[in-house]
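Hey L., structure's done. Input below.
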Amino acid sequence: MSKKQVKKFLCKHKYLLGIFAIAIIYHYSTKARLPSERQLREKGNFELILTQNGTASWYGIPFHGRKTASGEYYDMYALTAAHKTVELGTFAKVTNKKNGKSVVVKINDRGPYVKGRIIDLSKAAAKEIGMVQDGLAEVKIEVWKKKR
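Output:
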């Protein structure tokens, strides 16, 4: 493609390119800034407030784009989770007991509403710990709250 052809293409499609650029900026600016597992433990900015063991599930497409209990919109591609009682905005390290994989998520919703389950993970979080295929997993949850 020559420079002239590239210039013509950009002029012809500048509005679409602008919308695409705005969408990308919005997408990355609204992502939750999650602490790493190391940051939770080492810096002293967070305190462990709860440890639980039980069954986790994940939720996805039917809820994608809907408002959560925190007022944020649910993004199944973000590392978030729903818990019945934990304060919204806290962080949880969720470890799959079967394979040892773990992920840090932000609690931004309420649930799960199925008896016997302790946490609902976003699809992205479920993928990180290898439970998308099975749908359920036995997990250990460590809930961390930022110190004031």
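The longest helix spans residues 14-29. The chain has two domains: 1-30, 37-146.

-- N.
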